[in-house]
Write a structure and sequence with these properties.
The chain is an alpha+beta fold. The protein has 7 helices and 7 strands; from the N terminus they run αααααβββαββαββ.
Amino acid sequence: CFEYALNSDLPYLDKSCFAITIFVLNLDNKIEYDALYPIAGNRFGDLFHYVFEEFVDSKGKFSLNELLSLGNEIYDSYTLLDVSIGDKDYCKYEFNKCIEKTYEFLSKFDLSVAQSELECNGKLEGIKFKGNIDLVCKDKNGNTIIIDYKTGSHIEHDDDDVESCIQGILYSELYEKMFNVVVSKVIFFYPRFNKQIIYNEPCGNETRELLKIKLISFADSLKNKSFPSKNLLDKEGVCKYCNYRNICKAPDKKES
């Protein structure tokens, strides 16, 4: 299986040995009822981003049917070696629904894509930041909007809430520093729920002051090494998004 996977010319296949080990051996047997659980979290996010990267590269000229066809190709390539997925057809159906909802969202608001998968980096309050913005769009009035896809199975953001929307606020600050363009709003779009969470004026004075306070506090925590304790094996904690958590032998203890 390893030899086949690593030597195959399948498009979009994640060729990380550890990831393939999990696919083939099905090490994670604790599957909850979630149609997309076998490709949940960062895995589902990867597939979803591949589809819309292609969409953006086409300058939005793909029809919905063309986009769904591409999504099926990507999905089939990725899941070919994954023996953990029971009803692949139903999983594909759910995946396609997410593609449809995102396509409708972008079409409904008549947003033109300016940039996609944009790497942004810079310093804020002396702290280096680096990230990738999913989409930078312009609305019909020329306002700049940052869109971040959220493909998880839980909604973790609230409208105009600094705490939950800080990722988008940081992106907005970095984008303005890089391009001297003010971001008017950040939209977190959840395709599974067809829901959008909006943070307005992420570069406004009030938000900037709140962000400054949080970053200074964060910098002090880094310097003082004052981090909250986390259980290394708690999947809702620091290990939640680790690709190797299913085979990790980390001791069951708390570390700072």
